[in-house]
Amino acid sequence: MTRNASVLQRQYQQLRDDVQQQPYVHQDDTGWRIHGQPAWLQGFKTTQSVVYQIRTRHTHAQLQELVPNTYQGTLCCDRFSTYDPVSLSEVKQQKCLHHVIGSCKQALNVQLQQAGRGRAYPQKLLTDFHVALGLHQRFHLGYCTLLEYQRQGRELTAQIETRLDQPCRSKENLRLQKGLVKHHQRGNLLRFLDDPLIKPTNNAAERALRPAVIARKVSHCSKTTAGSEAFAIFKSLTQTARLRGLDPFQTLLDHRRDQNTR
Known about the structure:
The protein has helices at residues 7-19, 60-63, 97-112, 120-140, 146-164, 171-185, 203-219, 225-243, 248-260; strands at residues 24-34, 37-45, 50-55, 74-77, 92-95. By secondary structure, the chain is an alpha/beta fold. The chain is globular, with a radius of gyration of 21 Å.
């Protein structure tokens, strides 16, 4: 950040820096265009802020601008390969359980079209993951204590681990099992059963992207790189203001007033 940067740019950089200090960050991406060329809008949601950035590439390098390998919190995300490089191996993650459930449903639908007993495997996993989601919800509604939550969480974890060790004959079930085992071995599948403050889904990031998606529909994205950067700054500041219960328009006016008094 240069000395001549505007107040808005400085505030935006402060939001970016603050992401690395938060215990949990939800991240997701959606398509964008810059002068008609493919790009990606990345959203980062914490309890304190919403940060967007637009880049022409979609790799772990762009993700690590805000979530470096030194990040000490938990990254909540989907199972896209962007999150799997060696440079992120030390970052704790929680994979979105809704995506996991979707994979189980897909495997079940394939098995329903075939003869045999292969359908029982994805069905049992579906039940386990729904029970895990229900347990997390009950805890946050005050229906069970932390000790009870952790006890049931250990039981669920042991049950799911048993299923992940179970021999599978069906190619579809083997594919499902392999994908789940990979993330569970890294501790990224059921981390929320150890820490109920971790959300088991990535809904927060998906909701954070909705205002940007609406803007994409009415604006047809950005004509220039500078325009995309300006959009990311303004959208980050206004959505963060809303998250904090502030008036977005007044927030921008206050920043403008600060700029004029410098």
